[in-house]
């Protein structure tokens, strides 16, 4: 929606606080009813998950388009460059000046990372503070600003979360089902191996190493389908990726899976997965977050 993009203040891309950003970005989602569709999906209404993901995807594209328009119009150096690359659907790696200090260095991954935030949207601090419609837009903007050199990180600011959704409170069975349903819907656009790769911050070579195969083989699996004998492992790893993406702070997962832990026998999570301990690791991780009741 180009008419919506033209009214977005440039400041929201680089230095506006959450309150200011909300005022500027509110117009992008007023007609999408993200909050309504999310509530329906949480309630288990038939077809609601697809409607929610569709509304959230449209919101993501609007934020990217608005940011890309501002960058083209002469925003400060670097601001919106990731969005400009992503808006056209181009999959080229970001240029050196565009590359943030993160494992996600491809415009395609930027868009996917935004979409993966839909999994945890009900417990997003932005949603808790600002409501689902504005909170969803701010959640997308937070990811975009993390990719824009010179941009100030976006924080929801002070204000206690409701007791039932505090950061240290385990997600209940409703939220677990919502996370699984949303991720299944996202699979229509993104193959499971790509989701695993994105969440864990892996290259295709590193993804192949988890299965003991080459980069070429894992790329073939991604394009043509996972062999039947490996589908169970992929499913367990995908469930683990959902859990970690929903529970941990954005950007934290790649570091966590590379840190040795006593619970894994002083191995890293990636090393344990490469050793075919995926079911054990999934069970340990679920219990560590007290998700056993939802498993």
Radius of gyration: 19 Å
Number of continuous helical runs: 16
Indicate the proportion of strand residues: under 5%
- Quote the average pLDDT: 77
* Count of structural domains: 2
Which consecutive residue ranges, at least 5 long each, have pLDDT under 50? 1-6, 74-82, 84-105, 160-171, 291-295
Order of helix and strand elements from N to C terminus:
HHHHHHHHHHHHHHHH
Brief summary:
This protein has 2 domains: 2-164, no CATH class; 191-294, no CATH class. Helix 4 crosses helix 8 (132-146), helix 6 packs antiparallel against helix 8 (132-146) and helix 9 crosses helix 13.
Give an overview in words.
This protein has 295 residues and is mostly helical. It has two domains: 2-164, no CATH class; 191-294, no CATH class. 56% of the residues lie in helices and 0% in strands. The protein is built from 16 helices and no strands. The chain has helices at 2-5, 18-25, 34-42, 48-72, 81-87, 107-116, 125-130, 132-146, 173-186, 192-200, 204-211, 215-224, 228-247, 253-256, 269-274, 278-288. Helix 3 packs antiparallel against helix 4 (48-72), helix 4 (48-72) packs across helix 9 and helix 6 packs antiparallel against helix 8. The longest helix is centred in the first third of the chain and has 25 residues, at 48-72. The protein starts with a helix and ends in a 7-residue tail after the last helix. Mean pLDDT is 77; it is low at 1-6, 74-82, 84-105, 160-171 and 291-295.
